[in-house]
Amino acid sequence: MKKIRETIVPRKGKEIAGYVLGGVMFVVLLPTIMWLASGMPNMAVHIGAWRAIGTGVLVLGGLGLSIWTIVHMKTRGKGNPMDAFGKEIGPRTQHLMTDGPYRLNRNPMLTGTLCYLAGWIVWLWTWQAALVWGIFFVIMFVQVLTEEHRLKRDFGEEYEEYCKHTRRF
Predict the structure, then answer these.
(1) CA distances (Å), origin 79, targets 10, 11, 97, 106
(2) What is the DSSP letter of 93?
(3) Tens of pLDDT along 84-129?
(4) CA-based, 20 to 30 A from 29: which of 18, 106, 123, 155?
(5) Are 43 and 35 in contact (CB under 8 A)?
């Protein structure tokens, strides 16, 4: 029992730490960088109903899609998204997921994150915020290409067939 507990607890701790780190980075740090790059505008300024609605739809929709993807990956895929530029940070999913949010596109968590951050662009309404989004997109696109090579290696024809019928974003 002690041996089992020792192997489960560090793995769970690492997994929880990964989710917290990812949440802080994508939900807090990137919008903060966008805000700083925009010259730290007053966030309480009245922006108008349409911009507020647009921001809310993008932010809540993006977060919802990302959370749905994480839950789906954990429950159906029996793994997590802790993979960065080919380096496994946590246990990868055990099978190729093509259902749930993955029937929408091949990268629904990233799509959700990009929508969430687009909501911040709408709120801040500056070219600097859009530039931060663009830089993030380029970095994540390189990550996606790296991940696609791994998925082709891991799942072969099954992944290639999925790619023929499902968009990247």
Answers:
(1) 16, 12, 11, 16
(2) P
(3) 555 555 566 778 899 999 999 999 999 999 999 999 999 999 999 9
(4) 106
(5) yes
Per CATH, which fold does 2-165 belong to? Answer: Four Helix Bundle (Hemerythrin (Met), subunit A) (1.20.120)
Taking only the tens place, the pLDDT of each residue in 38-57 is 999 998 877 889 999 999 99
**Shortest CA distance to 44 belongs to which of 119, 115, 124?**
124
> Facing residues of 53 across strands?
none
Residue 89: what are its φ and ψ, rounded to 5°?
-100, -30
More confident residue, 131 or 26: 131
Question: Under a CB-based contact definition with an 8 Å cutoff, are residues 104 and 18 in contact?
Answer: no
Q: Where are the domains of the chain?
A: 2-165
Three-state DSSP state, 99: coil
**Mean pLDDT score, 1-23:** 65
Helix-strand-coil split of the chain, %, nearest 5: 75, 0, 25
The alpha carbon torsion through 112, 91, 76, 149 (nearest 10 deg) reads 60
Closest CA to 55 of 34, 70, 73: 34
- pTM, two decimals, is 0.85
